[in-house]
Design a protein that fits this description.
Strand content: 35-45%
Radius of gyration: 19 Å
Helix content: under 10%
Number of strands: 12
Order of helices and strands: EHEEEEEHEHEEEEE
Largest sheet: 5 strands, antiparallel
Distance between the termini: 53 Å
Number of helices: 3
Length: 163
């Protein structure tokens, strides 16, 4: 294995579980620590595309999947050289899942231009977020829905069992 290879975690351990990094998650090799036979890995968040966590992992706990595409290698190096790269040390558990009912709790111009305002309700229409934004269907009228991206901090889960 070499730097920038795409790998999968094949064994769990308590330290990684505490960071919400579990067996089956994939990521990219960032650097090798020869003295401990460990890799620093950038694990990708399947629930929030664009989010990641950096962690050390023993070589025996990783499975090689494929090499990073050569045309995109400069972007990889750019990302790992960003000043805050190593501050991302754990993955957040997702706040929502597909088909959850939510209430919009903040007004924002990008929502209002679609007719969506604070207090309106909708349904999560995706299995993942992108940079913290979820695809939400909000009913505006019986015959019209808004299909918009809403940041997870701008909505709350509605417990339909109490309705």
């Amino acid at each position: 294995m070499q730097i920038s290879d795409f790998v999968e975690l094949i064994n769990d351990n308590e330290e990684l579980r505490n960071k919400n990094i579990f067996k089956g998650i994939s990521g990219f090799l960032v650097s090798y620590i020869d003295t401990t036979d460990e890799w620093i890995v950038k694990f990708l968040d399947d629930n929030n595309w664009g989010a990641y966590a950096v962690a050390k992992v023993k070589t025996k706990d990783l499975n090689f999947l494929h090499s990073y595409p050569q045309p995109k290698l400069s972007k990889f190096h750019e990302q790992i050289n960003m000043p805050d790269f190593y501050t991302h040390t754990e993955l957040k558990l997702p706040k929502f899942k597909e088909y959850d009912f939510v209430k919009i709790i903040n007004n924002k111009p990008e929502y209002e231009k679609h007719g969506v305002k604070k207090g309106m309700t909708g349904c999560i229409a995706s299995t993942y977020a992108i940079n913290g934004e979820w695809n939400v269907l909000v009913s505006l009228k019986p015959w019209k829905d808004a299909d918009i991206e809403v940041h997870e901090d701008d909505m709350e889960l509605i417990d339909i069992s109490k309705q």
